[in-house]
Hints:
Blueprint: H1 18-35, H2 42-72, H3 78-87, H4 90-93, H5 96-106, H6 112-137, H7 142-169
Helix pairs in contact: 1-2, 1-6, 1-7, 2-3, 2-5, 5-6, 6-7
Amino acid sequence: MARPAPATPGQATEHPERIAGTVYGTMVVLAAIAVGTDERNAWRLAVLVASSALAIWLAHVYAHSLGESIEDGVQINRTRVSRIAHRELSIPLAAVVPCVLLVTGALGVLPESAAIWCALGAGILTLGVQGARYARIERVRGAPGLAVVLINVLLGLSIVGIKVFILLFH
């Protein structure tokens, strides 16, 4: 079935394929914050979040390079890796806002605890926005569109639930 034309002219340049990378990167960020929640040092948590996003991105780029190379029957080359790295850049970029928020806690602009919760909130917000982008691009309206947004948000909240569980039972 042919893909429908974009609903608005701006959608043609909005890179809808980056939605997946942003969601994936955001889930990595939320998981890193949840797992590192015992770390009371916002600097260390920011480094954990940034390095996790970067490591996952590198692994993702390499794995896709291998897969596409096999699929196309062409050896891996710099051009292919560079193209995939650029295409998947939304994975590490998803860590930028949460890391900035964590650094504000490390610098004392916000209390560290507030900075951690703000970073989690930014991740949840990002997931909601990406769900809404997907629904708009795919023209999923009404209750089904809302369901897409809610699924994204609930996935993020499930990771926040892990953080709360760790805090309560640690």
